[in-house]
Design a protein that fits this description.
Length: 98
Amino acid sequence: MKTSKAPEFKDFWEAYPLHKAKQEAERAWGRLSVSDRKAALAALPSYRESCQRTGVAYKYPQGWLNGRRWEDEYEDAPAPKEESHEPSDIQPLSMEIW
């Protein structure tokens, strides 16, 4: 019977898009169960894509782990505004000199 190896912190650190506060992140990682570690690693691609699409800044890794953010539903990018091609009621200012 093959058992799957528990993900290590270095796997998470390499995959996470923001490398800040490593020591705190490692402590947060150490408090997670093996199944939570696997779920967190599996959610990283969606998290990264969501942040890139929406322009939302990445959370510090320890906050992402402590907040169990891998369980979040990530939003899609807002739909682009449609440009109006209707004529404007605003008239340009006259450049007459008095």
